[in-house]
Amino acid sequence: MKKQVYELPPGGPNMQEEEISRAAGFRTVCGIDEAGRGPLAGPVVAAAVILPQGYELPGLNDSKKLTARKRELLFAALMEDESVLKCVAQASVEEIDTLNILRATHLAMARAAQGLPQPPDMCLIDGLPVPAFPLPSRSLVKGDARCLSIAAASILAKVSRDHYMQELAAQYPQYGFQRHAGYGTREHMQAIQKYGITPHHRRSFAPVAQMELPLGC
User: Fold this and answer.
1) Is 146 in the same domain as 180?
2) Residue 132 maps to a domain
3) pLDDT classification of 210: cutoffs 50, 70, 90
4) Which residues, other chains included, contact 59 with Cβ-Cβ below 8 Å and sequence gap of 6+?
C-alpha cells in the first residue's frame, strides 16, 4: 500500500482548514493537539484552541519545530490574548494505566474541547481519526504543521506539560524530569534503576513494568 503524502504549506501552518470548515457551515472551529503520549512518567496533556478569523502571530508553528524559548514566548502570547479561546486538559497516569495511552489521549482531547469557554461545533484534531469523539470532528494528519489552530494547541499542550514536569522535578530532583520530561532517556532509566519508580510513572509501560520495583514515596 502506497504511503499517502501530505503537502505542507510552504509558509507554515495557516487557517485554510478552519476556513474550509466555516464554509461548510461550522461557525466555531477549534484545533486540538496533545503532548506526552510517549513518556514513561507524567500525564498526557491536550489543548483546544479557537482562533479569531484572520488571526496572526509571527512565528506560530508546530511546537516540534520550535526552540524551547520560542515555545515559551508563543505560549505566553497565546495565553495572554483574550481573543484566543483555549483550554488545556489532561488524563492522569492512573487513567493511562487503566484505559491505555491511546484512549487516555482521546479522553484528554475531549476534556479540552468540552472545557472551552465557547462550545465548538467542529474540532480539527491532529493525527488519525478519534472514534466516538463527543463533538463533530475532522482529523488531520500532520495537522500541527498545516493548521494554525492545531499549531497553537500543540504549543499550549507541550509547554503546559513541560511546566508540569518541571514542578514534578522539584518534588523528585533525582529523576531529572526538568530535562527529559519523563521520556525514557538513559538518565531517566538509570534513575529508575537506582531510586525505583514514583507514583507518577506509568506502570503499564513496558520499561517501567519490567523494573518490578516498588512505588517510591
Assistant:
1) no
2) yes
3) confident
4) 66, 70, 73, 74
